[in-house]
């Protein structure tokens, strides 16, 4: 009696189920992963394109930018420039993973290990996801958002809604709380608030307003003060979350526009941890699928042919082109994350004297899965690199640091992967992965609500790097549209 | 407790709404791009799915981003060191090339053009968005699909009035043959033999008995193998079928004589091509009749019309005669909306223009919903005939028709880029609504 889970490339649901159970066995008993319940959905390539273009979420409100994304992806896919992702996984509970129907059975196994266990464990355990996103309620919230935006389009016209969404999207990167916990978007509270706003509108309705000449708007509802809202009341300045500030304080926005801003802001906040965890999230999933697939092979559950197929796709996933390679487009988070995590395992199991110097806490201690799980739970890209990037990985990747001053015509190589450069390269790479320094630091410094209502923003320049001038003007136009009055942005040395 | 869910049968095209919003958003640029793309394309390629490149302006999504190129300083790390050591310098890439391009697209902010594929439907929608075949709108509105009884073969049941005798008799004959039904002649023959046997002397009782029995059996058989059995009977069957009543026929008339050069023909071809596409797209039931003429006119198929050559003199009125003839034969005004479009370089035999005008005024215009005349000039002529009032003989003659009939239009084309505006103007929606 053969133990093989499958030997043919074609898959069916019985085989999927059998394989899933074998993978689950390894993931839960050998690796002791802690996951949300899984929901696995098989979709066609066209549906995969659909999912791509709605920010990989199963539901999303309608907006032209998603259509643009779809059109672009479709061209790339049709011309064969880019293959489709094998899977999409959603940080929700239950954790939804999409499998592409065209995958072979080996690929389905890889994808289940990668998404349903690797990503899933990471979503459930990493502190950023735990603290900043709400896996249980995200799908409900998206359903609400989609309906709400559709209702607004019906009531206020597509153009109005589109304009508001455009402006809100322009400020998405400035629509997150980076350092403090955001107020939780509970669906009930949202509905309650909306109801109260609608009630105010009804009470404040006055037949006389209809006699105003066209173009003159009746005064809109003042922001409703929510006693549970920790931020309500006085403006707290400076404020880094521009969308939040405008939503609460804009003198001109109507109730539905505030709600729309809030939706965009909540979405942005939901995605913010993912931007800080690219390397770790993909690294964790890749490391998990690599470990599980190898265990399946070691235990005689998959054929040698399957294993070769898996290795082929694994190596192309973790391929890192050199900086001067035509294929280079920045660091491959899969490669870096997987490289570092595989190296942590090596250090735990078979350390060199150098490793013992650098990582006395866990070198040679053996319990690699515990070390990794601690890292997965408690770090983000920046701190993970700062803490765990080993000299060996730096040598493997042949990392080197450049210094760039705008008025010089050359880059200067400042540090390379040698004894005197390791720490500097490591710190600089860590900074590079810090989302809060990659985004410009823009804050609301004051808003003259009693006077001419000018909104003052400040960009605190990091090491003298200014904003890109053209896009600055375009985005400021959007800010003015939302604020309704003059907006001034000053760039100042931090 | 895992759930596997098969979503493959779920409706796809979930982002269709988003696509429509995108097309609507980029309308202006897409329209420009589509028209440019169609203008340069070969005539036969017009109705195909094609790639459209629009500039990113209007659909860009600006975000605040840093620009370390203008001032300030930064450190960054790259993989794949070759042989650099600290202190080495590397030339910065030229702005806009290499790494610069990459960074621009990273932030989704590049000024690059945006390329995507549009389906034929979407392209034609854009091109035809504010066009409409004049006057057909109103007739289309009252269009209730008429029902007509059409033959639908033979059936085994039906009303007695619908019996198909031929089929019924054929079946009956076959069955009678197969079952060996005695014919009347057989019976008569037996009867006469029996009679003879009875008269014979001496009478042979035996023979008589045999013949009697034969006769009795034959008569019995004739009874149970009927001449016509219910299973033989066949009926003509009819079903009700809707027929579109608002049908249109478009007559395309073109001068292919020697005075029409390669360039003129090409322009005319383009005009008709668009017209043809427009008709096929807009209306479900549209016949298109192609008539080309030199000194006499012929009805030809589409391929001939656009691509074959012929030389000869020019008598425009022959085409009009031909059109009338075809119309009388096949397109009764009660059932058809009649449209005509004529392309010519404006030359005709002297005196013929007068004849054309008479034909138009008396016979053709009363039948036609709309008649468009396109005159193809070269660019120098276009300048000479800047005014509507001056022109070749046919043009001047047709102007008088245009004054009399509001549904008669005349336009001039000198270069491919003239076609689109003219096309728009000829079939403007507002005219139809008026």
How would you describe this protein?
Chain A is mostly helical and 494 residues long. Among the domains of chain A are: 13-126 and 277-314, no CATH class; 323-437, no CATH class. Chain A has helices at 13-30, 45-53, 64-78, 105-125, 127-132, 138-156, 158-170, 187-203, 242-249, 255-276, 278-298, 304-317, 333-349, 353-358, 368-378, 381-388, 391-397, 422-432, 435-438, 469-483; strands at 38-43, 87-90, 95-100, 400-405, 410-416, 442-447, 455-461, 487-493. The longest helix of chain A is centred in the middle third of the chain and has 22 residues, at 255-276. In chain A, 43% of the residues are buried. Chain B is an alpha/beta fold and 434 residues long. Chain B folds into 3 domains: 1-58 and 110-127, no CATH class; 155-237; 246-433, 3-Layer(aba) Sandwich (Rossmann fold). Chain B is built from 16 helices and 13 strands. Chain B has helices at 16-25, 27-40, 99-106, 120-127, 136-141, 165-178, 184-199, 205-224, 262-282, 302-307, 316-330, 352-364, 379-384, 393-404, 416-426, 429-433, and strands spanning 3-6, 50-54, 73-78, 89-91, 114-118, 146-155, 235-243, 247-255, 286-293, 297-300, 336-344, 368-376, 408-413. The longest helix of chain B has 21 residues, at 262-282. Chain B starts with a strand and ends with a helix. Mean pLDDT of chain B is 76; it is low at 96-111, 132-144 and 430-434. The chains are: A mainly alpha (494), B alpha/beta (434). The interface between A and B is large, with 100 and 64 residues. Strand 1 of chain A pairs parallel with strand 1 of chain B.
What characteristics describe this protein?
heterodimer, A: 494 residues, 3-stranded mixed sheet, 53% helix, B: 434 residues, alpha/beta, Rossmann fold, 3 domains, 6-stranded mixed sheet, two-stranded antiparallel sheet, 16 helices, 43% helix
Secondary-structure map:
The complex is a heterodimer of chains A (494) and B (434).
Chain A: H1 13-30, E1 38-43, H2 45-53, H3 64-78, E2 87-90, E3 95-100, H4 105-125, H5 127-132, H6 138-156, H7 158-170, H8 187-203, H9 242-249, H10 255-276, H11 278-298, H12 304-317, H13 333-349, H14 353-358, H15 368-378, H16 381-388, H17 391-397, E4 400-405, E5 410-416, H18 422-432, H19 435-438, E6 442-447, E7 455-461, H20 469-483, E8 487-493
Parallel strand pairs in A: 1-3, 7-8
Antiparallel strand pairs in A: 2-3, 4-5, 6-7
Helix pairs in contact in A: 1-4, 1-11, 2-3, 4-11, 6-7, 6-10, 7-10, 7-20, 9-10, 11-12, 11-13, 13-15, 16-18
Chain B: E1 3-6, H1 16-25, H2 27-40, E2 50-54, E3 73-78, E4 89-91, H3 99-106, E5 114-118, H4 120-127, H5 136-141, E6 146-155, H6 165-178, H7 184-199, H8 205-224, E7 235-243, E8 247-255, H9 262-282, E9 286-293, E10 297-300, H10 302-307, H11 316-330, E11 336-344, H12 352-364, E12 368-376, H13 379-384, H14 393-404, E13 408-413, H15 416-426, H16 429-433
């Amino acid at each position: 009696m053969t133990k093989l889970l499958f030997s043919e490339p074609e898959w069916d649901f019985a085989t999927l189920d059998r394989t899933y159970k074998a993978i689950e066995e390894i993931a839960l008993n050998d690796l002791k992963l802690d996951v949300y319940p899984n929901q696995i959905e098989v979709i066609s390539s066209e549906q995969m394109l659909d999912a791509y273009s709605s920010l990989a979420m199963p539901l999303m409100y309608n907006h032209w930018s998603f259509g643009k994304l779809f059109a672009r992806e479709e061209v790339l896919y049709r011309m064969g420039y880019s293959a489709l992702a094998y899977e999409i996984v959603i940080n929700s509970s239950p954790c939804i993973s999409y499998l592409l129907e065209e995958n072979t059975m080996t690929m389905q196994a890889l994808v289940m290990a990668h998404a349903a266990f690797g990503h899933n464990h990471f979503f459930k355990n990493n502190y950023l996801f735990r603290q900043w996103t709400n896996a249980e309620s995200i799908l409900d919230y998206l359903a609400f958002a989609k309906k709400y935006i559709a209702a607004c389009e019906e009531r206020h016209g597509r153009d109005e809604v589109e304009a508001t969404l455009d402006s809100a999207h322009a400020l998405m990167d400035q629509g997150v709380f980076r350092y403090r916990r955001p107020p939780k978007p509970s669906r009930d509270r949202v509905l309650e608030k909306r109801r109260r706003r609608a009630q105010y509108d009804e009470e404040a309705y006055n037949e006389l307003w209809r006699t105003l000449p066209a173009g003159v708007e009746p005064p809109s509802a003042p922001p409703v003060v929510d006693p549970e809202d920790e931020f309500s009341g006085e403006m707290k300045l400076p404020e880094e979350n521009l969308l939040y500030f405008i939503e609460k304080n804009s003198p001109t926005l109507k109730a539905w526009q505030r709600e729309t801003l809030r939706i965009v802001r909540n979405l942005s906040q939901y995605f913010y941890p993912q931007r800080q965890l690219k390397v770790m999230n993909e690294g964790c999933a890749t490391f998990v699928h690599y470990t599980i697939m190898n265990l399946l092979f070691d235990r005689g559950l998959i054929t040698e042919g399957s294993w070769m197929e898996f290795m082929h796709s694994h190596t192309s996933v973790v391929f890192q082109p050199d900086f001067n390679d035509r294929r280079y487009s920045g660091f491959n988070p899969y490669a870096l994350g997987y490289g570092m995590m595989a190296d942590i395992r090596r250090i735990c199991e078979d350390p060199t004297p150098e490793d013992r110097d650098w990582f006395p806490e866990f070198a040679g201690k053996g319990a690699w899965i515990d070390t990794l799980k601690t890292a997965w739970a408690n770090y983000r890209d920046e701190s993970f690199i700062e803490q765990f990037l080993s000299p060996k990985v730096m040598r493997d990747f042949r990392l080197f640091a450049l210094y760039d001053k705008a008025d010089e015509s050359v880059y200067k190589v400042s540090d390379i992967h040698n004894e005197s450069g390791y720490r500097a390269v490591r710190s600089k790479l860590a900074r590079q992965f810090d989302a809060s320094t990659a985004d410009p630091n823009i804050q609301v410094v004051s808003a003259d609500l009693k006077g001419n209502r000018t909104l003052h923003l400040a960009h605190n320049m990091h090491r003298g790097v200014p904003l890109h001038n053209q896009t600055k003007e375009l985005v400021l136009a959007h800010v003015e549209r939302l604020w309704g009055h003059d907006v001034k942005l000053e760039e100042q040395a931090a | 407790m895992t759930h596997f869910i098969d979503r493959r049968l779920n409706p796809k095209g979930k982002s269709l709404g988003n696509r429509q919003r995108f097309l609507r958003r980029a309308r202006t640029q897409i329209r420009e791009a589509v028209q440019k793309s169609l203008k340069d394309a070969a005539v036969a390629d017009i109705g195909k799915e094609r790639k459209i490149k629009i500039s990113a302006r209007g659909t860009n999504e600006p975000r605040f981003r840093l620009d370390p190129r203008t001032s300030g300083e930064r450190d960054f790390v790259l993989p794949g060191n070759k042989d650099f050591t600290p202190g080495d310098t590397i030339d910065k890439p030229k702005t806009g090339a290499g790494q610069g391009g990459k960074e621009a697209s990273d932030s989704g902010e590049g000024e690059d053009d945006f390329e995507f594929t549009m389906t034929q439907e979407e392209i034609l929608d854009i091109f035809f968005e504010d066009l409409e075949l004049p006057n057909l709108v109103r007739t289309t509105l009252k269009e209730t699909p008429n029902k007509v009884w059409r033959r639908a073969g033979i059936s085994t049941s039906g009303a007695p009035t619908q019996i198909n005798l031929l089929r019924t008799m054929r079946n009956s004959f076959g069955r009678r043959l197969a079952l060996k039904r005695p014919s009347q002649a057989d019976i008569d023959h037996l009867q006469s033999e029996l009679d003879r046997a009875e008269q014979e002397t001496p009478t042979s009782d035996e023979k008589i008995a045999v013949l009697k029995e034969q006769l009795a059996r034959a008569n019995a058989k004739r009874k149970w193998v009927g001449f016509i059995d219910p299973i033989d009977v066949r009926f003509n069957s009819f079903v009700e079928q809707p027929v579109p009543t608002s049908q249109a026929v478009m007559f395309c008339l073109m001068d292919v004589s020697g005075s029409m050069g390669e360039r003129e023909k090409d322009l005319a071809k383009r005009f008709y091509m668009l017209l043809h596409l427009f008709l096929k797209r807009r209306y479900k039931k549209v016949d298109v009749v192609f008539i080309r003429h030199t000194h006499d006119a012929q009805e030809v198929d589409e391929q001939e019309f656009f691509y074959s050559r012929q030389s000869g003199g020019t008598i425009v009125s022959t085409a009009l005669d031909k059109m009338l003839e075809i119309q009388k034969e096949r397109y009764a005004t009660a059932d058809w909306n009649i449209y005509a479009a004529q392309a010519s370089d404006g030359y005709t035999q002297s005196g013929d223009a007068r004849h054309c005008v008479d034909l138009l005024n008396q016979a053709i215009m009363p039948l036609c919903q709309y008649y468009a005349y396109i005159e193809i000039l070269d660019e120098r002529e276009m300048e000479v005939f800047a005014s509507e009032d001056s022109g070749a003989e046919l043009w001047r003659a047709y102007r008088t028709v245009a004054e009399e009939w509001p549904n008669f239009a005349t336009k001039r084309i000198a270069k491919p880029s003239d076609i689109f505006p003219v096309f728009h103007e000829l079939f403007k929606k507002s005219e139809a609504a008026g």
